[in-house]
Each structure stands twice: as C-alpha cells, then as structure tokens.
Amino acid sequence: MINSIKTFMKHRDWPVVVVLSGIPELLEKVNLDPQPRNVLTPYYLHPLDPLAKEGFDEIDTVLYGFSEATGIGIDAVRNEDVFMRMCHGHGNMYGRVFRFLVDVFASLPVDLSELTVGFLADRYALKTGCIPGQNVFLRDDYLGCDVEALMAGSDRARVALPHYIRAKAMASFSYVTGSHLLERSNVLQSRHRT
C-alpha cells in the first residue's frame, strides 16, 4: 500500500496529494519505509470540533477551493447549519468530510451551476445507504442520526427505494479521483469560453 501511495505522489502528469486521516495504524506502516518521510508533509488534524470556528474555517476553505476550481456556486450550502450536519455525518473527521466533498464535486452533473443541500443529501444517502430519516441533511434533529452504521434504518429501506433509485441515477462516478475534478473543471471552463 505504501508503494502505491508513493507512486501516486510521483506521477508526472497527475501528481496527487494524499490525505491519510482517521487511520492511526497507517502511521506505523508509513514509518516502516524511509522514503515516505521524504515526500510526505505531516500535519496532525485534531478531530473536528463543531463548536470551534477553526474547524469550519478548514471546511470552508476546501469548499471554496472546489467551488473556484469547478465554477459551481456554493451559497446555498456555505453556512453553519450545513457544516454542522456535514461534520456530524462524517464522525467529526476531516478526512471523511474532505472525501465526501471530493465525491460531491466530482459527481455534479455538468449542467448544474449551484450546489444544494438536496444534492448533498442525495450523495450522503448514496454513500451511506441510509434512509431519509437517518440522513443528516434531511432530518431536523440530525444529531439523532446513526452516522456510524452503513444503511442506517435499512429495515425500512424498502419504503425509500424510489429515492435511492433517483440518487443512484444521479451518480456519475462510483469511484472518485482527482482527475474527475480536473475533467469537470476543463468541461466547465471550455463551456464558459464559448
């Protein structure tokens, strides 16, 4: 695994920045090989504290950067309520939130110009398999959502099936890489030039 990470980081045409977050055991593996220390820049990210401003600043910076890169408006989701829901839904872990945001921006339909809470809810449902009553973006008392379980509330999933069919149809990528964001950015930039 460490060799794969090093290969990704050294790729000439598409270098990537790898964020290893939420898996403390990886630090032990990285320390077994002296090469990663030469190509990695370590940062310790505390778990997100939804009540601390610094956590929201980090999320806002990433959200804004993706918005700038893709040309997608974020006004509808750039607020404390959405950030709190996003943090809770991803166990207050930076890596999970950032991975979710990469997935969201990479899967936006090309004709969509504004990111909405509804789209976040659809992507969250698709990634977790939860029913609407366990979706942090849909439920009023989102702190009551079981965010640690895949397919939370699935014993009632048959009732929500049409929602998931719709969400799955909207998914354009099942696996997200940085190249999808670049591809989307290039499509949008060429569209704006014409």
What layout of secondary structure does this protein have?
Blueprint: H1 2-10, H2 25-31, H3 34-39, H4 53-70, H5 80-89, H6 94-106, H7 117-128, H8 161-170, H9 178-193
Helix pairs in contact: 4-6, 7-8
Describe the structure.
With 194 residues, this protein is mostly helical. The protein has 2 domains: 2-39, no CATH class; 53-193, no CATH class. It has helices spanning 2-10, 25-31, 34-39, 53-70, 80-89, 94-106, 117-128, 161-170, 178-193. α4 runs parallel beside α6 (94-106) and α7 packs across α8 (161-170).
Brief write-up:
The protein has helices spanning 2-10, 25-31, 34-39, 53-70, 80-89, 94-106, 117-128, 161-170, 178-193. It has 194 residues and is mainly α.
What are the main properties of this structure?
2 domains; globular; single chain; 194 residues; mainly alpha; disordered C terminus
Q: What is the global morphology?
A: globular
Q: Kindly name the structural category.
A: mainly alpha
User: How large is the radius of gyration?
Assistant: 18 Å
Number of strands: 0
Question: What is the arithmetic mean of pLDDT?
Answer: 75
Query: What percentage of amino acids are in beta strands?
Result: under 5%
Query: How many domain modules?
Result: 2
Q: Number of helical runs?
A: 9
